[in-house]
Design goal:
Blueprint lengths: L4 E5 L5 E5 L6 E4 L2 H18 L29 H20 L1
Antiparallel strand pairs: 1-2, 2-3
Length: 99
């Protein structure tokens, strides 16, 4: 396996190395190579004690925030007339703007 490591020169105290996304998996070494060797050992040690298990998590689908209003006027007997009136008004506005 390949992991992404962060290696930091900490000055006179040497180097610190850690694996991205693995909290608590940080080691120190006098040299960069020593820090990376210790990091490989720490990873191998940790992986020898654990089991990686894929799990599925149900994520609630919130959908579009206005979806709850869809169809709210389906039984309104005035809706068809309202839509016709709105279309007529839109045509009037467009005609006025064109002149």
């Amino acid at each position: 396996m390949t992991y992404n490591a962060i290696v930091e020169n900490t000055g006179p105290s040497g180097y610190t190395a850690s694996i991205l996304g693995w909290p608590g998996c940080t080691v120190k070494g006098a040299t960069k190579d020593e820090a990376l060797t210790r990091l490989r050992q720490a990873i191998a040690n940790r992986l020898s004690r654990v089991e990686i298990v894929p799990i599925e998590v149900d994520v609630p689908q919130n959908g579009h925030p206005l979806a709850k209003f869809a169809g709210m006027f389906k039984d309104d007997e005035l809706l068809d007339q309202f839509l016709l009136d709105m279309a007529d008004y839109r045509r009037e506005v467009d005609t006025d703007r064109a002149e």
